[in-house]
Structure formats: C-alpha cells, structure tokens
C-alpha cells in the first residue's frame, strides 16, 4: 500500500508526540548487599506501581511508563536477572528471584525521594531470609492426641551443648537449638505428648562426641520418635547466598532432595472447635485426666507397650521420611522460609536410632540476615510451632500401632 505524504506526516507527528510524553525509564540499578540484592527504579514523581510476588519472580507493573524491552542477566544469589517488557500502556519489570517470593516473604519495598530533581526511587530488596518474624497468632491449644490408651512419647534433641558450641554466628548454635527444643516440648506437652529432652541446659553427656551422641540416641529406645534440632552454617564464600530450612532422614543410599509444599497455619476459629474436644477418658493407664503443662511426670517406660515392635530398617526409613516431610511442610508454613528440601544423610543421631528419626536444620547462622532471624524469639516460636505441628500430624496420620 502506498502511503500518501499527508499520512506520513501525521504518522511522524504522532510518533514524536508519543516519545515526548513518555520518556523511557532508565534501567534499574542493581546493588549487592550483605544477604540481599537491592533493585532501585528511578521513577517520575507521579508514577504509580503494582508489585506481585509470583514465586520464582517478582512482577512490577508501571502504568503509563515506557521501557526499552530486553532480558538482562544478573549473577547474585537473590537475583538471577530481569526482564523489561513494554505492554500497550504500561511497562513491566520482572525480577527473576531464585530464592522465591511470596506475599509473606522474599522481598521488601520502600519509596524514597530522588537524590536529584523531583522524582522518586522505588527500592526493592530481595532475600530469601526476609521471612515471617511476626509474633505467632494466639492459637488455641493443640488438639489433645493419644494413641489407644497410651500417650505418645517423643525425644527432642537440642543438638550440641556444653563444650561443643556447634555452628557459630551471631549466636552459638547450641543456644538456638535449646531455645527451640524447649518450645517444641511446650507445644507437644500441651497436646498430651510425653517429651524427653536430651538436655535442658548448656550441657552434654560427655566431652567425647561419640559417647555423647550414643547417649542421646539411647534415650529413643521404646519411644515413638526422635527429632534432633540444629542450625547450619556454610563457608564464608557462600554465606550471603545460603539460607532456609532443610530436614534430614537416614538413608543408606544417596537420594535426591524433594521439596514439599508449605502447609499454611490453620485459620484460628476452625481449629478452635477441634481444640475443645475433650480427651478420651477410658484408659487403663490414665483415668482420663487431661495433662496440664505442668504434668511432667511420664509414665514409667516399662508400663508402655513398645510402639514399634520389630520395625525393620526399611520401614523405619519410610516413616522417618514421612515425618521429615510433615515437619518441613509445617515449619515452612509457619515461617515462610526458603525450602531447602527433605534430604537424606548419614548423621549419627538419625542413623543409629531404633525409631523414626529426623534432624532439622533450622537455617544458616552464617547468613547475614538469617543469622539474625535465629536470634528473634518470635521467629523461634514459629519454628518451634512448625516442628511440633509436623510431629503431631505425623503421629495422628502416619505413625503405626495407633
Ligand atoms: Zn548442629
């Protein structure tokens, strides 16, 4: 089709006026900070924006703005790259976030005045260690559970202690482990579960590591399960990037990690209905008194039937894996932390236990932000709640010999 002179002139005028109205935005500025990536967008004063967390990406929509479309790679633990798209009447910036973003985690935003002129700066900080550290809502008590007239009994192992501090960060690992173990005990006891701690203070059974671990494992004999609580650390070169939760079970073979979905915290009113159900009263072992949190006297072990007679190693491994999956799912749901998966390993305390056993790594003390999270009592409440909740769900739904 042949274009007339007039048409051509009109078209040129239209193009000129468009470019004069909507000046293309400068590309985002990217900064590498300890434990997070900072993205700064320089915007006109009147600009508006919407931010949507999409899991593996954060989408920033800028109505009325213009950008030069393109894909740009960035090599940071928190930001793999970004995409700029020009849609009809809006610009879109997509930040590729390998550590993940959710409505509760992974990013923080603020707007600041421009350093020069009258524009504004949209600042987006990205890190997997931006998690939910708000106080736990006032949950109703856990529902009371028991199995066929006997109480479930669980060993909670606060890793390290005494001469062995474990990993070091802004706080010693042994201290964080104990804080969370005490919380797990409280939540489980509220649900009627008998809890044995391997330690209740800064101690160890022996300065000799092997003897100490053997004593911890021995406590699991005749109990329902064993949960060891630890925090992690990595070498300085990776300290900025590695964060999140992982849960281990023992397998003689190397297996690939898998990544269960987080289970969100329950909506409080519905759970409250379940929580007021009275416990079953007719039990030969217990005349029906609901244990209060102060009821710390366990039944003598010899009066309990062994919960898992002749459990073979394959069965124990399968149950440990299920327990690990439950605990990771609920802990992720309570914290919104990065999911580093259910993994198998050869650690002593999960290998030599006679009952289903897992080891929880609550996060990385070496990470500049997560290390601080692990000092936050609200965050430790959330981890403790998630671990306890996962244990209870396992006992109710998966544990043999109900
Ligand atoms: Zn440890």
Short description:
The chain is built from 8 helices and 15 strands.
Keywords:
alpha/beta; elongated; 402 residues; Immunoglobulin-like; binds zinc ion; 8 helices; 5-stranded antiparallel β-sheet; Aminopeptidase; 6-stranded mixed β-sheet
How does this model look, in words?
The protein has 402 residues and is α/β, with parallel strands linked by helices. It folds into two domains: 24-126, Immunoglobulin-like; 153-397, Zn-dependent exopeptidases (Aminopeptidase, 3-Layer(aba) Sandwich). Helix content is 26%, strand content 25%. It is built from eight helices and 15 strands. Strands 11-10-12-15-13-14 form a six-stranded mixed β-sheet. The protein has a five-stranded antiparallel β-sheet with strand order 3-4-7-6-5, with no helix packed on it. Helix 2 (173-190) links the parallel strand 10 (153-158) and strand 11 (194-197). Helix 5 (313-335) crosses helix 8. The longest helix is centred in the last third of the chain and has 23 residues, at 313-335. The radius of gyration is 27 Å and the shape is elongated. The relative contact order is 0.16. Mean pLDDT is 86; it is low at 16-21 and 269-308. Zinc ion binds at residues 159-160, 166-167, 173, 230.
């Amino acid at each position: 089709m042949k274009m007339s002179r007039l048409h051509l002139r009109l078209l040129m005028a239209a193009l000129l006026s468009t470019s004069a109205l909507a000046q293309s935005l400068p590309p985002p500025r990217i900064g590498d900070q300890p434990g997070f990536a900072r993205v700064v967008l320089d915007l006109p004063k009147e600009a508006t924006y919407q931010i949507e967390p999409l899991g593996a990406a954060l989408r920033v929509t800028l109505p009325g703005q213009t950008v030069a479309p393109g894909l740009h790679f960035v090599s940071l633990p928190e930001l793999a790259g970004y995409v700029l798209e020009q849609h009809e009447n809006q610009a879109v910036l997509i930040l590729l976030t390998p550590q993940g973003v959710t409505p509760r985690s992974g990013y923080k935003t603020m707007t600041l005045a421009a350093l020069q002129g009258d524009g504004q700066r949209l600042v987006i900080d990205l890190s997997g260690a931006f998690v939910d550290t708000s106080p736990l809502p006032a949950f109703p008590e856990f529902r009371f559970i028991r199995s066929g007239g006997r109480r479930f009994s669980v060993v909670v192992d606060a890793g390290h202690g005494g001469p062995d501090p474990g990993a070091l960060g802004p706080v010693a690992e042994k201290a964080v482990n104990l804080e969370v173990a005490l919380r797990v005990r409280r939540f489980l006891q509220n649900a009627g579960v008998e809890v044995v701690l391997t330690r209740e203070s800064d101690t160890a059974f022996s300065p000799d590591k092997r003897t100490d671990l053997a004593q911890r494992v021995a406590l699991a004999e005749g109990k329902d399960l064993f949960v060891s609580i630890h925090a992690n650390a990595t070498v300085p070169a990776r300290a900025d990037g590695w964060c999140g939760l992982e849960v281990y079970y023992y397998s003689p073979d190397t297996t690939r990690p898998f990544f269960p979905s987080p289970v969100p915290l329950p909506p409080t009113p519905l759970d409250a209905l379940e929580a007021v159900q009275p416990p079953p009263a007719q039990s030969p072992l217990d005349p029906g008194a609901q244990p209060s949190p102060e009821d710390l006297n366990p039944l003598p072990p010899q009066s309990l039937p062994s919960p898992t007679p002749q459990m073979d190693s394959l069965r124990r491994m399968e149950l440990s894996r299920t327990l690990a999956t439950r605990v990771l799912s609920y802990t992720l749901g309570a914290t919104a932390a990065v999911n580093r998966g259910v993994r198998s390993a050869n650690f002593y305390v999960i290998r030599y236990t006679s009952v289903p056993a897992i080891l929880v790594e609550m996060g990385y003390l070496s990470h500049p932000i997560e290390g601080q999270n692990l000092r936050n009592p609200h965050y430790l409440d959330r981890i403790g709640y998630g671990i306890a909740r996962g244990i209870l769900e396992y006992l109710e739904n998966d544990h043999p010999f109900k």
